[in-house]
Prior knowledge:
Aspartate Aminotransferase, domain 2, DNA binding, aminotransferase, HTH-type transcriptional regulator YcxD, alpha/beta, flat, single chain, Aspartate Aminotransferase, domain 1, Arc Repressor Mutant, subunit A
Amino acid sequence: METKYEAVKQEIKERLAAGNIRPGEKLPSIRTASALWNCSINTAIRAYQELEKEHLIYSVPKSGYYAVLRSQESARRMEEHIDFSAACPDPEVMPYKDFQHCLNRAIELYREQLFTYCDPQGFSSLRRELEKHLAHSQVFAHPSRICVVSGAQQALHLLASMPFPNGKSAVLVEQPTFHGMLRSLRLLGVTALGIARTAAGIDLDELERHFRNNPIKFFYTVPRYHNPLGTSYAAEEKKQIARLAERYGVFVVEDDYLADMETKAKADPIYSYDSAGQVIYVKSFSKIMLPGLRLAAVVLPPSLLETFRLFKASADSSTSVLSQAALELYLNCGMYDRHAAMVRERYQARMEALDAACRRHLDKGLGFRYVAAHGGIFTTIVLPEGIAAPDMIAALQQRHVRVFSTEQNYLPSFASDNGLRLSIIQTDAAEIDRGMALMAEVAGALAQKREMDRRRVIDWR
């Protein structure tokens, strides 16, 4: 049931949205608001304070509250803006209120444990809860082998920097791959080797040659909803990767950052096929809920556990205990599963909209190449021959469409695919369709300009 202060808050929000309260205009005083909405002064104060937290109004001491200023031009640009570059969850799907409840409850239950150092491996009750949560993805691990980290990026950085029991030092990465991993390898000075990955997967014979002939300490892979390709490995490929890792003593770092976006019940991770303790499983929570919490889980084989604990403790004494305790309650009460189901459904619909928009606008003989991604949040579009990614990005930016080049996802020694990574995480169906229409339009204009420039050169000669 809606409380009085929420009703007052909603009424003011509607007036702001409708333009009945203009940007910069002073709002009714607290006393006037109390009379206007037939509520107590405390209720009016609370409604104004909540609106201020949402940055819709601001207070001036001894003067009152004012609507936040926004120029007509900036508002128009925000309405026109289409963001295919974002990697943070859509603000509209973030579970602010639910997680706030879990934070408050965590303080009540664990107040004596929350604001001190804890085990670098993670809050013990959260690791027990993670044991149950991970089992749903066919990742079975005792809490003693689960480590909570400050985001998946921290886990990848620590794994890249620490020694491995196989005594090898190079890291094999798919090409393309997650740019955050490439950045860590570069900063750490780690030798990185690449193996091509396409929509069809990877060449398993080539993978075996790398494992047999090169000093690979681990193979970094994103088997599910690859970043940036958006594709997933088939079950047989995952089994073969696990077998090759066992045969050659190479570890596999499995980045399962979108495990909760999976729509196929039998799409098990590589970890589920590992019988030799060669697979390190990394699970992120950033794309489902609140990335600013910086929480992820790593399942480690016994041979790596103590070294990882040591490196984790030297990087930060412990991951935020308050965030960990709140996540434990969020998982335990079923809120996480319900939220994940809602996000999965929403993002799935957007990926379907992207596939339809690509077929509608890009299949017009322009020369685009793309693979329909059937889930997740990313896909890659390879540009027509003769159109450079920087030119396309700049032209789209002028039309208020943001995209990223896939060049950042390649090692310097690998030729990039002249592609664009598209994310649907902060778009809707209408924006997706309009964005693809603009992409086709811009590509046509760039191709026409290229042809005109070619003719000028011929005429000049």
